[in-house]
Amino acid sequence: MSAHDPGRIVIVGASLAGLSAAKALRAHGFSGGLMLVGDEPHRPYDRPPLSKQVLRGDFGPDTTLPQPADLDIAVRTGTAAAGLDRDGRAVILADGERLAYDRCLVATGTRARPWPNPAEAALAGVATLRTRADAERLRQRLRERPARVVLVGGGFISFEVASVCRELDIPVTVLVRDAVPLARAIGAPLGAFMAEVARDAGVDLRLGAAIARMEADGRGRLAGLVLEDGGRIETDCLVVAIGAARNVEWLDGAGLAADRNGLRCDRFCRALRADGTAADGIFAAGDVAHWPNPHDGDALVAVEHWGNAVAQARIAARNMLAQDPAGMVPHDHLPDFWSQQFGLTIKLLGLTAGADAFAVVRGAMAERRFLAVFGKAGRTVAVASVDSARWLPAYRSAILEGAPFPPLPGGLDAPRRIETQVLEETAR
């Protein structure tokens, strides 16, 4: 199948990646049938604003992504995929309907990881934040001005929601089991920096803290939390932000290499079978994809960021139309993301996982305006900026080329001597 030999493509996942792939397919001249299937009742929408602008009330919860009028795509919302028949080339929906395909793109993304105790998770006042419906409910709860919001988890969702709470002058406590928040995403030094920023903004940040049990009132509503150290927090509003689970369960029995890490795919975005060979006609893109990162020796990664979802979807779309493997192009996007919290804009290029050294190369952390570089085994692997994004492009090539770390001092606005910090906690 190619752009000149129309068939039918089914995209499972009414997501940013799914819509991006649909647009790319049409842009590459595909004129066949195109169907987008999603389990939520909404057309594809933008998720990043949900934890920021939507909660603040800057604009409503409808963050629907623009869709060209001439896209000519059939959209099935509110319908979950329940299975994949590879031999019969069909996606099986939860209602039993079969959608035949010539090519299939898996773009089912992730869902919020639920609280492990189902009875506690079901209490009124216990929430997660992943979907538009989640954001609508939490936004309404913040409008009611709870006496205290508690967040459990040390990732971006937790800190972004905490930031909004402080902007709304709502008391907020953040419980993080680890010794440093945000370390997995932006490294321990920046995580420690953001911990200080959060506390200065009035966040009751408790590190090395975990919930032993939740307490309910007589109406099935959350009333308080008992911590593992014996402390107690009174609250009727808890946001569980303990990570994401990849939506691969519907692929059980399909013979694909899918597990908790996502759907394994090769550098051409082709889904792999359990034996490691490419599955005919099946591709993957976005948060659900588990792929080899060419910028880190093909180490397998699953990247939950906006930019990667778009870039990977476009590559998958192009490769779906290739006449043969020789015409395919690899996905080599350099992961990047950004976050706004506590009045600061944080941006990062590359991945900090496994980094063993860190250096501030422009500005100063004390001024809360700086650029920092991460090293791994003597080469540059990532760069992060805090309110200094204009310098990021200058370091992109250093990451792509694996330039030596630490970088040379003495450049424009750079210190004459760069202090390098060894990250023992991530080097082990």
Automatic annotation (TrEMBL):
Keyword field contains Flavoprotein: yes
Named cofactor requirement(s): FAD
Record-annotated Reductase C-terminal domain positions: 337-406
Gene3D superfamilies, sorted: 3.30.390.30, FAD/NAD(P)-binding domain
Domain FAD/NAD(P)-binding positions: 8-313
One Pfam family of this chain: Pyr_redox_2
GO molecular function: oxidoreductase activity, acting on NAD(P)H
Alphabetical UniProt keywords: FAD, Flavoprotein, Oxidoreductase
Record carries keyword NADP: no
GO CC terms, sorted: cytoplasm
Protein name per the record: Rhodocoxin reductase
Organism, as annotated: Methylobacterium hispanicum
